[in-house]
Amino acid sequence: MIIKIFILLLILSFFHALEELEIEGRTKNGWARCLPTTRINNKFIKFLINKELTLYHIYMLSMFFIIFHGIFLFIPWNIFKECKVVGFLMFYFVFEDVWWFLLNPEYQFKIFIPGHVSWHKRYWKFLPVSYWWGLIVGIGLLYLGGLHA
């Protein structure tokens, strides 16, 4: 079942990345750099994500948070299921971001070379630190969610 879910996440994130490329353009202007959106750039946001946050991203993140939680309209909620949902959501956002770069002719595989993406300032090994955090937290939440049947 988990493989089917990851395949679904890969497909959904692929089309989400295509949608974002249509909105932002297939240019180097990612992270909503050229969109007319409100930008939040205070010390707390800078500490958390090391870049400005936009309302565009807040709305997009909120929409997918709600979509993923739609499962609870059909099954009862508990903390273990919540861990699984948020764990899969973490993987989803890493997948979507990777797709965005791979499908964008201005970047493609350059995402994996530190210094080529202005809003990914911190790297560890060959990946942006935010990807590592997303994967580690995602794995941890899926593990916690699996502790209870």
Brief summary of the model shown:
With 149 residues, this protein is mainly α. The chain is built from 5 helices and 4 strands.
What does this structure look like?
The chain is globular, with a radius of gyration of 16 Å. The strands form two sheets. A two-stranded antiparallel ribbon has the order 1-2. Strands 3-4 form a two-stranded antiparallel ribbon. The chain contains five helices and four strands. With 149 residues, the protein is mainly alpha-helical. The model has no long low-confidence stretch (mean pLDDT 90). The chain is 59% helix and 5% strand. A hairpin with a 2-residue loop joins strand 3 (123-124) and strand 4 (127-128). The longest helix has 25 residues, at 79-103.
Unreliable stretches (pLDDT < 50, length at least 5) are none
Please trace the helix and strand order, writing H or E for each element. Answer: HEHEHHEEH
Radius of gyration: 16 Å
Distance between the termini: 14 Å
**Taking all residues together, what is the mean pLDDT?**
90
Question: What's the number of domains?
Answer: 1
The helix/strand class is mainly alpha
Kindly state the percentage of residues in helix.
Answer: 55-70%
Strand percentage, roughly? Answer: 5-15%
